[in-house]
Each structure stands twice: as structure tokens, then as C-alpha cells.
Design goal:
This protein has about 375 residues and is mostly helical. About 75% of the residues lie in helices and about 0% in strands. The chain has one domain.
Length: about 375
């Protein structure tokens, strides 16, 4: 099964429109101070307990990933988490690792949480599974993936998370009206995505509202917005390359590797291949290549999403979010040990993917 160019464009165009629009929403939310204020509010709410502060950052990372996509968490929340940790005298690495891992492992619940999820809507629709059906299918594995990630993070960093701190001052002042508008738009986006509004149709008006509000309240911020044009170009090229490879025989070979069936062992085979291929070549081309081999079954398709979403946290190129996270850490002068990232990432990936795949097998 492969797509001709016309169908490919029809499938990809709405996803790219969504990517641009949701990035614009996330950028304006960040420039308006929404993430900064929320993180500082978490620091004050925790009342000097690092563990409570970390758990609040966990909640913020999960919500940000689910509603605004994993790249938003990696790009915008990572520097805020590092800064807040340093301000209260806590080690910044556990907070940085939290945003990295949850940006990937918390991206299963909604279609908008990850580009791979958006891509999967087409084969899911051909199998009679709509947006609500997708959420029902992925709900338990998504929750299990989040819980497993938090447990592994706590076990690895529990000594660093047991200290206390003096309550920091409030965040820097921001334009309160613009920040409230940005928060209101995010609150409205969440139910729109859940009930099945086409992501591009929901995110484009949201971006338009925030652009107008920014022009009204703080037009100078518009010059600071960074759009992902290179990412868009890269995705277009990836689609064309993978589609050509599938036409030239890659699909037939992959079918012999992926196998058939939807029992527990088969689902582990699919999710495991998703993890391996994502960390080898990046999760987006890995999904594009493997999708035709699992598009005959909702459970197999879901297993692939578990592998390519929660698994690419071992290598630095496993997902775009990981690359963006590493860049933000460097900008914040936080040293990142690639070997340590690989070792702990492997532990987390194996644990989370295994737990989520078992949850999927138990609920399908």
C-alpha cells in the first residue's frame, strides 16, 4: 500500500498547516509569559518542597505535551523548568530530563500531541476509528506510559528531589491581558481537539486570535516569533523519500520483518521495531516506513505509535523534540552527557514501551 502524489499532498497539507499554527500559538503563549508564570506559580505552590515542585512540573509538561504537542514542551517548557530549578537551588538535570522524557512519552493521548498521531488518523479512519475511537484506544496505554515515566524519573533522581528551598519571588511582570487571552485560547483548544475538530481547523483560528491580540497589546513581540519553516521543509522531503522507498520495495521487505497478528507477542514485535527504528533514523521516517505494514489493525497501529512516540529517547536524533531539547539545554548552559542520556533513556524506553504495550494488549 502506498500513496500517489495527490493523496500524499491531501494527507500532509492539513498536518503541516496544524504544525505552523500550533507553533505560532505556543510561541505567543511563551512570549506572553504564560509558561513562565505557571512555572513560578508551581514553585510558590510547592511551598519549598522540591519533590512537590517537580510533580507540578510533571503535570505542566504532561498538559503542555498533550494539548500543544511534544515540540512545545521540548522548546518552551525546558528552559523555564531549568531556570526555576536553579532559582530554588535544586539540581536542574532532573527537571530537564522530565521535560525531555514526558515530551515524548506523554504524546500518545490526543492526535495533536505528536505528528505521528496526526499521520495515523488517516489509516485509523480507513479502519473505522475516528478521533474519539482513537482516544478510547490510546487512553489506558497513554496513562500507563506517563505513570511509568514518572516512576523511572523518581527512582533515578529521588535523592535530588528530597531537598527543600526558600519560596522564590513572583515571576517577572507580563502583559496580564495578553497572557489571559493566551491561556483562554489554550483552554478552548483542549476540548476542541478531544471532540474531534480537525486540528488545523481549530489551531488556525486560535493562531489568528493570538496574532491579533499580540498586535493589539504588544506588537513588538511579533518580531520575536520563530516559525519552524526548516522543519516543514524537512517533513515534506521525508514524505517524498519514504513514499518513493515504499514504491521501490521497502514495504514488501518490512512486512516480512514486522509480521502479522495482534496478540501480545505480535504487538511487542511492532512496538519494539518502532523503538529500534526511531532511535536509528528518527521517529517520523520510522513511522512513515512502518505504517503500511500495520495499517490493517487498530491494535497494531496503536502499538507502532507506542514505539515511535515513547521510544525515541535513547539517541539524540530519535525525535525532533529531543534535538530541540538538547539545543535548549545548551542555550541554558546545562551540560548534557550523551552517554548518560543513552543509558537512562534506554531504561526508560524499555520500561515505558513495555508497560504501555501490555496495557494495549490488555484493553484490545
Amino acid at each position: 500500500m502506498h500513496l500517489d502524489l495527490t493523496l500524499l499532498v491531501e494527507r500532509v497539507a492539513p498536518i503541516l498547516v496544524f504544525l505552523v499554527a500550533i507553533t505560532l500559538v505556543a510561541e505567543i503563549c511563551d512570549l506572553a509569559g504564560l509558561f513562565d508564570v505557571m512555572a513560578h506559580h508551581a514553585a510558590r505552590t510547592a511551598k519549598g518542597r522540591v519533590l512537590v515542585l517537580w510533580l507540578l512540573i510533571v503535570g505542566l509538561a504532561v498538559v503542555c505535551t498533550v494539548v500543544l504537542s511534544l515540540d512545545t514542551t521540548a522548546v518552551l517548557l525546558t528552559p523555564v523548568a531549568i531556570t526555576v530549578a536553579r532559582q530554588v537551588g535544586a539540581p536542574p538535570l532532573p527537571f530537564a530530563m522530565t521535560t525531555l522524557w514526558l515530551a515524548n512519552t506523554a504524546s500518545l493521548l490526543l492526535p495533536v500531541s505528536n505528528l505521528t498521531n496526526l499521520l495515523s488518523l488517516h489509516p485509523f479512519a480507513e479502519l473505522g476509528v475516528g478521533t474519539l475511537g482513537y482516544i478510547r484506544l490510546m487512553a489506558v496505554p497513554a496513562v500507563v506510559a506517563i505513570v511509568a515515566t514518572v516512576v523511572v524519573l523518581w527512582l533515578l533522581h529521588r535523592r535530588d528531589l528530597g531537598s527543600t528551598y526558600d519560596t522564590p519571588p513572583p515571576a517577572e511582570p507580563h502583559d496580564r491581558v495578553l497572557m489571559q487571552i493566551a491561556g483562554g485560547v489554550c483552554v478552548l483548544l483542549a476540548p476542541a481537539f478531544v471532540v474531534g475538530v480537525q486540528p488545523a481547523l481549530a489551531s488556525v483560528p486560535a493562531a489568528g486570535i493570538l496574532l491579533a491580540a499580540t498586535y493589539w497589546r504588544a506588537p513588538e513581540l511579533l518580531r520575536r516569533i520563530k516559525m519552524p519553516w526548516l522543519t516543514v521543509m524537512g517533513i515534506c522531503i521525508l514524505f517524498l523519500v519514504i513514499d518513493a522507498a515504499l514504491r521501490l520495495g521497502l514495504e514488501a521487505w518490512l512486512r516480512t520483518v514486522v509480521g502479522h497478528g495482534s496478540d501480545t507477542a505480535d504487538l511487542f514485535r511492532v512496538s519494539g521495531l518502532g523503538v529500534l527504528s526511531s532511535n536509528a533514523i528518527n521517529n517520523l521516517p520510522a513511522y512513515l516506513a512502518l505504517e503500511p505494514t500495520v495499517a490493517d489493525s487498530p491494535a497494531r497501529l496503536a502499538a507502532l505509535l507506542i514505539g515511535v512516540n515513547a521510544g525515541p529517547i535513547i539517541t539524540m536524533w530519535g525525535s525532533v523534540a529531543t534535538l530541540l531539547w538538547a539545543s535548549r539545554c545548551r542555550s541554558a548552559d546545562l551540560s548534557v552527557d550523551v552517554g548518560r542520556i543513552a543509558r537512562t533513556g534506554a531504561l526508560c524506553a524499555v520500561t515505558v514501551v513495555a508497560a504501555a504495550t501490555l496495557a494495549l494488549a490488555a484493553t484490545t
